[in-house]
Amino acid sequence: MIDLNEGKAAFLNDFERQEAFLSRFGSKGLHDLRRSALSRFEELGFPSPSEEEWRFTPLGPLTKIPFQLSPNGISQRESEVAERLQPMGIAPPDAVLLLNGRCARPLNSAGLPENACVQPLLLALSEKQEFVERHLGRYASFETHPFTALNTAFIGDGAFVYIPKNTTVTKPIFLVYWSQSSGEPTVTHPRTLIVAEESSQATIVEVFLGRPNDVYLTNAVAEVVCGPNASIDYYKIQDESKEAFHVHTLQVQQSRDSTFSSHAFAFGSVLARNEINSVLDDEGCSCTLNGLYFASGHQLIDNHTRIEHARPHCSSHELYKGILDGHGHGVFNGRIHVHPNAQKTDAKQTNMTLLLSDDAVIHSQPQLEIFADDVKCTHGATIGQLDADALFYLRTRGIGKEEARSLLTYAFANDIIQRVRVDLVRRQLEALFLHRHQPTGGRTT
Amino acid sequence: MLTIFNLHAKVEDKPILNGVSLKVKAGEVHAIMGPNGSGKSTLAGVLAGRDIYEVTEGDVLYNGKNLLEMEPEERAREGVFLAFQYPVEIPGVSNTYFLKAALNAIRKHRGEPELDAMEFLELVREKMKLLRMDEELLKRPVNEGFSGGEKKRNEIFQMAVLEPKLAILDETDSGLDIDALKIVADGVNSLRDPNRAMLVITHYQRLLNFIVPDKVHVLAGGRIVKSGGKELALKLEKEGYGWIENGHQ
């Protein structure tokens, strides 16, 4: 039996060492929040597999590793990061770049509309403390979530995005989190806050990367506030080191007639837990959650989504696709909760999984909880393998077996990729699927 | 070019081919006719390398090489092409991408340089005219949402692009109306070449009015029971398969 609380102490010690530094940012109120989040984490400890929400995602290995907060700032050759970003059309000056959780470079804000703001969270906490604190930590609850509690305890650096009323930001906003370990496993708790005011519009791309094969933990939380009639197109690309652990919670709060769409791509890390909680808190909201993940080797990728239909006349569309190869392990848990007064809800959820090997495993759990009577809610889950007829067809045209498998895998993923509206990101994803993620399973043809 | 000798094949322990022998020379068009269940499609599948069929006896030599030992993609790269009776839909892969990957795999095997996007487009535009195909079909996913006629045309279009040495047309006429049939047959005829052999598998004689074969073989009970010239097809059309089956089983 693994003692899940063994690893807790390292984080508590981290906090002790960091507290004086963190307390310099934000009000006393914010620091009280940090402290209460820390005690909540202490109480909760790491979740064990006996907890329903973590049944298929054992955290034993994660809690065994003595992760250390990275010293403030690392001397990192930016070229290594730039090289990874280049195919996506991101140049470091155009992104908020965090290295091991500390902002290395604020974004070059030329090209942003007046009054719009994209900056490191530490800076925003100094410059716009009152405004930032009106939202920061208000949405992502840590009562039942130890990782969110931990992140909240360490609220420090991260990214802050503010789009004022009636403002459209046409260029995608890139937020890049890079991790590496210099021998010792490191941990970061980056925090993102995105506030889109009434009738504003923006595209935000969060990218999580790390030095290949380094061991580290990314424990990130992002809060998104969509004002009335605001429209946010959110992308997340997680291509962490294959030895890394990645825990991410995206908490979305939607106001009347707002539109939020998320496209989450996960390829990296040995263990990833992605949570998206969206609260449709007024009439006329629309929420789209699309996801694509690829787990091979001994990777485990867990996606938990929660859509709270709290008000009438809202719609949500969710499509998650998983590709599992080798001993890859996937978890999909999608809950749609329709509150008693949320009449005329239109919710659709689909989860599709492609198994490329005999040893790959998927746990798919759609959960519809409907307490209103005049709603349209559907869900469906499919699990399949590559189509033998299609594989043969491609091969009779001269396409080699491995390339044919890769092409059909790409075909499975393609409709999610084609929904990406940021051209260079979409092209990069196409290239990733066609050339890099060559399936290795082999035995199920 | 192709020599089939005493070929036996089964699917899940059920014997389908029971000793097929056949010789096809370069430049020739052979028709293989036969009633349902006679093994026509199995023969096509075995030649293309479909793994649901198990060859239990016999040999197939293709240009001096043992065809049965090759993977399906090797056969294709060596110039074997199967036009499917039921072309497979592949959502998510565009016709262009698919065909370019196929053509370049074959060109690479032949030691020819791969075509870039522009060169490829030029080539396919020319070939599309042959089949009177709409360029829009190139952008669509492979066979997805194509009508029956469009699928069959797409098969012959692929053949035109890939320029095989041995083309096997499996029931290319089934499900086609007369106009579509003519277009497909015109396409096939324009690909007749002294260096290319064709095996045309069909249930009906109708196709052979348009693609006139050099030889006609009748397959029944997994064996070729009769061979002849193109007039044999006419006799079958008139008298049905009954006289052959009764005489040989």
Write a short abstract of this structure:
The complex is a heterodimer of chains A (445) and B (249). Chain A is of the alpha/beta class and 445 residues long.
Task: Present the secondary structure layout.
The complex is a heterodimer of chains A (445) and B (249).
Chain A: H1 8-22, H2 28-44, H3 60-64, E1 68-69, H4 78-85, E2 95-99, E3 102-105, E4 117-120, H5 121-127, H6 129-135, H7 146-153, E5 158-163, E6 173-179, E7 186-188, E8 191-196, E9 201-210, E10 216-226, E11 231-239, E12 245-254, E13 259-266, E14 271-280, E15 286-295, E16 300-309, E17 315-324, E18 329-338, E19 346-355, E20 361-370, E21 376-384, H8 388-395, H9 401-417, H10 423-436
Parallel strand pairs in A: 1-7, 2-6, 5-8, 6-9, 7-10, 8-10, 9-11, 10-12, 11-13, 12-14, 13-15, 14-16, 15-17, 16-18, 17-19, 18-20, 19-21
Antiparallel strand pairs in A: 2-3, 4-5
Chain B: E1 2-11, E2 14-24, E3 29-33, H1 40-48, E4 54-62, E5 65-66, H2 72-77, E6 80-83, E7 90-94, H3 95-110, H4 117-130, H5 136-139, E8 141-142, H6 148-162, E9 166-170, H7 178-190, E10 197-202, H8 206-210, E11 215-220, E12 223-228, H9 231-239, H10 242-248
Parallel strand pairs in B: 3-10, 3-11, 6-9, 9-10
Antiparallel strand pairs in B: 1-2, 1-4, 4-5, 7-8, 11-12
Give an overview in words:
- The complex is a heterodimer of chains A (445) and B (249).
- With 445 residues, chain A is of the alpha/beta class.
- Chain A has a domain of 275 residues.
- In chain A, 24% of the residues lie in helices and 37% in strands.
- Chain A is built from ten helices and 21 strands.
- In chain A, the strands form two sheets. In chain A, strands 1, 4, 5, 7, 8, 10, 12, 14, 16, 18 and 20 form an eleven-stranded mixed beta sheet that branches. In chain A, strands 3-2-6-9-11-13-15-17-19-21 form a ten-stranded mixed beta sheet, with helices on one face.
- The radius of gyration of chain A is 21 Å and the shape is globular.
- Chain B is of the alpha/beta class and 249 residues long.
- Helix content of chain B is 39%, strand content 29%.
- In chain B, strand 11 and strand 12 form a beta hairpin.
- In chain B, helix 6 packs parallel to helix 7.
- Chain B is globular.
- The model of chain B has no long low-confidence stretch (mean pLDDT 92).
- Chains A and B meet through helix 8 and helix 9 of A and helix 2, strand 7 and helix 3 of B.
